[in-house]
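Posting this for the archive.
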Amino acid sequence: MPDPQKRIAELEAQIAELKARWPAHSAQPWMLQQLEDLEEELESLKNADADV
């Protein structure tokens, strides 16, 4: 099983990279969806890690 802490760090880096590319106006729908997906997975991992 992959290390949850490593995956959390990867997700945080992906979110930061996506936000750095975020346009000031008119974000693309795929960017919004990708951000939502990453944040949901991150929250899920953090909650699972807190339950341990």
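Residues 28-52 form one domain. Residues 6 and 47 are 15 Å apart (CA to CA).
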